[in-house]
Amino acid sequence: MGLILWHWLLLLFNLVSLCCSLSSDGLALLALSKRLILPDMISSNWSSYDSTPCRWKGVQCKMNSVAHLNLSYYGVSGSIGPEIGRMKYLEQINLSRNNISGLIPPELGNCTLLTLLDLSNNSLSGGIPASFMNLKKLSQLYLSGNQLNGSLPKSLSNMEGLRLLHVSRNSFTGDISFIFKTCKLEEFALSSNQISGKIPEWLGNCSSLTTLGFYNNSLSGKIPTSLGLLRNLSILVLTKNSLTGPIPPEIGNCRSLESLELDANHLEGTVPKQLANLSRLKRLFLFENHLTGEFPQDIWGIQSLENVLLYRNNLSGWLPPILAELKHLQYVKLFDNLFTGVIPPGFGMSSPLIEIDFTNNIFVGGIPPNICSGNRLEVLILGNNFLNGTIPSSVANCPSMVRVRLQNNSLIGVVPQFGHCANLNFIDLSHNFLSGHIPASLGRCVKMASLDWSKNKLAGPIPPELGQLVKLEILDLSHNSLNGSALITLCSLKHMSKLRLQENKFSGGIPDCISQLNMLIELQLGGNVLGGNLPSSVGSLEKLSIALNLSSNGLMGDIPSQLGNLVDLASLDLSFNNLSGGLDSLRNLGSLYVLNLSFNRFSGPVPENLIQFMNSTPSPFNGNSGLCVSCDNGDSSCKEDNVLKLCSPLSKRGVVGRVKIAVICLGSALVGAFLVLCIFLKYRCSKTKVDEGLTKFFRESSSKLIEVIESTENFDDKYIIGTGGHGTVYKATLRSGEVYAVKKLVSSATKILNASMIREMNTLGHIRHRNLVKLKDFLLKREYGLILYEFMEKGSLHDVLHGTEPAPVLEWSIRYNIALGTAHGLAYLHNDCQPAIIHRDIKPKNILLDKDMVPHISDFGIAKIIDQSPPAALTTGIVGTIGYMAPGINRR
Ligand SMILES: *[C@@H]1O[C@H](CO)[C@@H](O)[C@H](O)[C@H]1NC(C)=O
Ligand SMILES: *[C@@H]1O[C@H](CO)[C@@H](O)[C@H](O)[C@H]1NC(C)=O
Ligand SMILES: *[C@@H]1O[C@H](CO)[C@@H](O)[C@H](O)[C@H]1NC(C)=O
Ligand SMILES: *[C@@H]1O[C@H](CO)[C@@H](O)[C@H](O)[C@H]1NC(C)=O
Ligand SMILES: *[C@@H]1O[C@H](CO)[C@@H](O)[C@H](O)[C@H]1NC(C)=O
Ligand SMILES: *[C@@H]1O[C@H](CO)[C@@H](O)[C@H](O)[C@H]1NC(C)=O
Ligand SMILES: *[C@@H]1O[C@H](CO)[C@@H](O)[C@H](O)[C@H]1NC(C)=O
Ligand SMILES: *[C@@H]1O[C@H](CO)[C@@H](O)[C@H](O)[C@H]1NC(C)=O
Ligand SMILES: *[C@@H]1O[C@H](CO)[C@@H](O)[C@H](O)[C@H]1NC(C)=O
Q1: Is 118 designated active site?
Q2: Which helix (H) or strand (E) holds 29?
Q3: Which pTM was predicted?
Q4: Is the shortest distance between the CB of 178 and ligand 8 below 6 Å?
Q5: Beta-strand (E) ranges in 441-543?
Q6: Which positions fall inside the Protein kinase domain (predicted)?
Q7: Closest CA to 117 of 101, 95, 88, 102
């Protein structure tokens, strides 16, 4: 009893000492720290025994009152309480880069002496309080990187001294037409919000403006001509809005401009020649608009230019010779335009070029011989033009070069000898008129991964040096006149995944050593004169999944039973050979999608798994008179057609079938034709119906689709970053620099192509939570669907725990946060989504980590969509990954 009393007294004493010795600002800070969760390092330092808080960490005083509060990047969480308004003499508050959540308290408006307020990069929500109108002295306001919403309040225009206003990366809506009475703004950044309406004319009166950052909003209307009044403007970013109309010529008066970024809008008209007056311009981004007409040549005379991105417009014009004199030019991307004329022959001579992409224009003449003079060129893409002449030797001797694409031009002559090509990993020279031999020096380009020289006039044998390209994954030399027994040379290319040599003159049989190419997923050798037997070693290429094409090669003998190991194979073409024997070896090929066995000498019954191909036209069994359909296993669907007869001895049903056919033959041929026509029409109608529902979708997504396909080189294995339950995931870096994780759905096209799935995708696309991977887009091709997710730098939790070498250190706090974040994400899916989404396959591979190690759940909701038919099946089957299923699951 006495002890308790004593405790009470002590507590009372503490309270008294606390209240009477610490200044009111100090008390306010301690009160603030109730809701604001400070790290130990700070909370242990903020001692209630001090008389003022002036020596506390993060605090600075003027005249014993708190003037600066700087807790930036201390790992502070919790929320900001109303007590902050009790510190009347605060001039600067910096709480940036923490994890503070909750609302911005209106009481902050009581700190009327504030000049600087930085709350950026936290998790604050709600709006900007109206009380901010009292902050008449505020000159710097940073609220970027939060979850603030609502419209920007009119009260902002009462802050007459506001110079720097940064509110990017929030969820602000509404427009910004409110008037700044005396506009002293220097920087105005509101990128990545949902601001709509027009860009206000009054901005032209803010003559001190140096930065306008309006990237990624919903601004519409025209770009106001008044922006031309801004003589100090150095950065103007209006990218990714819905702006229309022309680029105002007045922009040419903004003589300080260094960055003019108007890309990804709906701008029309011509590029004004006045832009050539922007003598400090470094970055000119006009890509993805509807700009037309001639691009003013004088703009190419701006000496400071570094980065010119004009792609995806309808711009025409010539490149003037002065382009060759630019001393700073690094990136020029003009693809998908109508530029004509020759590329100035001196291009690259004075410039430190890094990336050149002129694909899909009308350029003629030769490739500039000195394009790599700066020794920094990494990407040279000039495909789909009308370039002629030979490939300059500098292209094959550019030490920095990584990627070369010159496909679809009219290039002639021989491929130059390769010298300095240590970084080169991709050369596409397809569809030209290149002749001569494949240079043996190609063997020096040791990083080479993809070689597409198909559709040229190359001749001669494949040099043995090609066997040195051990990193080669794709080799496409099809449609040339190459000859010899090349395959033995290529057997050392252990990483090869796609080998295409069809339509050449290779001879000498398929060597047994081909089994060494055990990474092959595609093998195209059709249309050669290989001869010999089909060796059983082909059957050990167990990864073959895309295609095996050995057609038209004079192959003889039986199909070896080992071919039955290729259970993942989707396309098999053995047509036009002299192969014989039965098809029994193929009875395990359950993934076949395309089959051609026509014009061989196969005989015996067609295995059950291949019966489905009877309906294909032309029949894959054509020209094998010995093949037949067997009805032995009592399959009611067994029937013959005009290619395949029933196997003898005839079953009862077979006789009936024959009689039926005879009746039909004897009966009206017209009726038969009519029936066929009906079936044909019905098929067509239902098909068009599906297509119609999707054409809009196809059109909208097609340009991005093409870009995804291009950037992954048509889903080349080297871009694979993972495999999930429903498909393979690739990393796609689009030309705009956006990076996506692209999931290619393996589900069959018919399953994907249904409108209700698209609706579901749209729903999923709108789900936003910090711990869920954002679904960015959904693209459809006839054969597959693609889901685009935001890319996660650190990979999956599985990678971090088990995969990467050396394993990164995972502190317990990070592990805890991963667990907590994952739980938050799941709780959101279960409780806040309507209808609730059950993931059904939570495991480390489905928990992805961003660069800050924040967990994001992936693959949610997809299971439901893919397995849509029939809905009842959803709840019955056991789903998930063994080892990660919920305990006590009811195994029915
Ligand atoms: C708080 O930290 C300051 C230095 O930043 C130090 O001078 C002061 O003594 C500390 N106070 C306490 C109570 O630890
Ligand atoms: C605020 O504190 C951080 C340390 O967290 C320090 O780096 C920064 O310089 C401080 N800023 C001011 C204005 O004192
Ligand atoms: C706030 O402090 C951080 C240091 O963590 C600094 O980078 C930032 O510039 C400061 N904000 C302002 C407006 O000075
Ligand atoms: C915020 O919290 C996350 C975990 O949720 C952590 O990884 C991060 O380091 C924290 N940020 C700061 C600035 O303390
Ligand atoms: C906030 O985060 C952005 C993007 O991560 C970064 O560029 C910026 O410097 C950060 N600002 C502060 C004050 O930490
Ligand atoms: C502080 O601000 C709140 C809300 O803005 C207001 O109601 C209150 O009267 C203010 N207090 C003082 C002391 O000015
Ligand atoms: C802002 O977000 C909060 C939740 O953070 C929500 O309650 C409120 O309705 C939103 N306000 C507006 C104007 O969208
Ligand atoms: C810009 O300022 C001028 C005079 O200072 C004024 O007449 C004009 O109305 C202002 N324009 C806008 C759009 O506010
Ligand atoms: C290449 O094309 C240009 C312009 O079309 C033509 O003048 C030139 O003669 C051609 N050169 C060669 C080698 O065919």
Answers
A1: no
A2: helix 24-35
A3: 0.72
A4: no
A5: 450-452, 459-460, 474-476, 481-484, 498-500, 505-506, 522-524
A6: 715-892
A7: 95
pLDDT tens digits along 294-351 = 999 999 999 999 999 999 999 999 999 999 999 999 999 999 999 999 999 999 999 9
The confidence score (pLDDT) of residue 13 equals 46
With a cut of 50, list the residues of the chain below it in pLDDT.
1, 3, 5, 9-19, 650-701, 749, 752-756, 865-880, 882-883, 885-892
817 C-beta closer than 6 A to ligand 4: yes
Architecture of the CATH domain 56-253: Alpha-Beta Horseshoe (3.80)
Question: What per-residue confidence (pLDDT) applies to 889?
Answer: 33
Nearest Cα neighbor of 443 from 463, 414, 413, 473 is 463
**Closest protein CA for atom 4 of ligand 4:** 817
Angle, CA 833 vertex, CA 832 and CA 834 arms, to 5°:
115
The closest residue, in CA terms, to atom 12 on ligand 9 is: 389
The candidate with the shortest Cα–Cα distance to 846, out of 777, 789, 798, 886, is 798
As a dihedral over the C-alpha atoms of residue 475, residue 481, residue 485, residue 486, rounded to 10 degrees, the angle is -20
As a whole number of angstroms, the distance between CA 499 and CA 522 comes to 6
Residue of minimum CA distance from atom 4 in ligand 3: 72
Assigned token pair, 473: 């994954």
126 alpha carbon to ligand 7 midpoint, in Å?
Answer: 6
Q: Distance between CA 328 and CA 438 in Å, rounded?
A: 36
Quickly tell me which residue has 């017209």 as its tokens.
Answer: 670
- Place domain 301-389 in its CATH homologous superfamily: Ribonuclease Inhibitor (3.80.10.10)
Q: Which ligand is nearest to the CA of 47?
A: 1
Pocket of ligand 7 contains residue 126 by CB under 6 Å: yes
The amino acid sitting at 326 is L
Calculate how far, in angstroms, residue 93's C-alpha sits from the geometric centre of ligand 6. 18
What CATH number should be reported for the domain whose range is 702-891?
1.10.510.10
Catalytically annotated residue among 841, 850, 859, 867: 841
Q: Which two tokens stand for residue 298?
A: 């004088």
Q: Which residue intervals of the chain bear CATH 3.80.10.10?
A: 56-253, 301-389
Q: Give the separation between CA 484 and CA 506, rounded to whole angstroms.
A: 5
Ligand 6, closest atom to CA 86? Answer: 13
Q: Report CA-CA distances (Å) from 353 to 297, 370, 385, 736.
A: 19, 11, 20, 18
Ligand 1 centroid to Cα of residue 25, in Å, is 17
Tell which atom from ligand 9 comes closest to the C-alpha of 389: 13
Task: Among 88, 107, 128, 134, name the best residue to mutate to test ligand 6's pocket (greatest count of ligand atoms within 8 A of Cβ).
Answer: 107
Counting ligands in written order, the one closest to the CA of 69 is 2
Helices (H) and strands (E) in the chain, counts: 12, 52
Q: How far apart are CA 129 and CA 119, in angstroms?
A: 14
Q: Is the CB of 52 under 6 A from ligand 1?
A: no
Using CA atoms, how far apart are residues 258 and 281, in angstroms rounded to an integer? 4
- Tokens (6 digits) for 228: 């031309």
Q: What is the distance between the alpha carbons of residues 757 and 751, in angstroms, rounded to a whole number?
A: 9
Residue ranges around ligand 2 (CB below 6 Å): 70, 72-74, 94
Task: Supply the pLDDT for residue 696.
Answer: 34
Q: How many residues does the chain have?
A: 892
Neighbours of 788 (CB within 10 A): 23
483, 459 in Cβ contact below 8 A? Answer: yes
* Residue 751 is assigned to a ligand binding site: no
Q: Is the CB of 116 under 6 A from ligand 3?
A: yes
**Torsion over CA of 803, 808, 814 and 817, rounded to 10 degrees?**
-20
Q: Classify each residue of 735-771 as buried b or exposed e, where b means 16 or more C-beta atoms within 10 Å of its C-beta.
A: bbeeebbbbbbebeeeebbbeebbebbeebeebebeb
Question: Can you name the residues that pair with 357 across neighbouring β-strands?
Answer: 333, 381
- pLDDT of amino acid 82: 96
205 lines ligand 8 (CB under 6 A): yes
- Is any ligand 6 atom within 6 A of the Cβ of residue 105? no
Residues of the chain with CATH 1.10.510.10: 702-891
Rounded distance between C-alpha atoms, residue 26 and residue 482, angstroms: 85
